[in-house]
């Protein structure tokens, strides 16, 4: 919580056990106009979409949070 309001209002699972979603670094977009975070599992570990883009790593998109 920040100022008595929840920091995360919603989380959306992207990859599911029966339907994995993989993206290249150039395909990793922004969540809610940059106000959210994308969680990506890469060959170098789990990181935010922003960190994956900076390191030019793609991977499995786990979820979006905003």
Automatic annotation (TrEMBL):
Entry GO MF terms: structural constituent of ribosome
Is Transmembrane helix among this UniProt entry's keywords?
no
Q: Which terms are listed as keywords in the entry?
A: Ribonucleoprotein, Ribosomal protein
Please give the superkingdom of this protein's source. Answer: Bacteria
One BP term from GO: translation
Q: Which Pfam families match?
A: Ribosomal_S8
- What InterPro entries does the entry give? Ribosomal_uS8, Ribosomal_uS8_CS, Ribosomal_uS8_sf
- Name a single GO cellular component: ribonucleoprotein complex
Q: Which SUPFAM superfamilies match?
A: Ribosomal protein S8
The signal peptide annotation in the UniProt record is none
Q: Which family does it belong to?
A: Belongs to the universal ribosomal protein uS8 family.
Q: What is the official name of this protein in its record?
A: Small ribosomal subunit protein uS8
Species whose genome carries this gene: candidate division WWE3 bacterium
Taxonomic path: Bacteria, Katanobacteria
């Amino acid at each position: 919580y920040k100022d008595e309001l929840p920091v995360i209002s919603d989380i959306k699972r992207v990859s599911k056990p029966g339907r994995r979603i993989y993206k290249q670094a150039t395909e990793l977009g922004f969540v809610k106009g940059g106000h959210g975070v994308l969680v990506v599992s890469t060959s170098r570990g789990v990181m935010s979409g922003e960190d994956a883009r900076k390191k030019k790593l793609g991977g499995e998109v786990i979820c979006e949070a905003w």
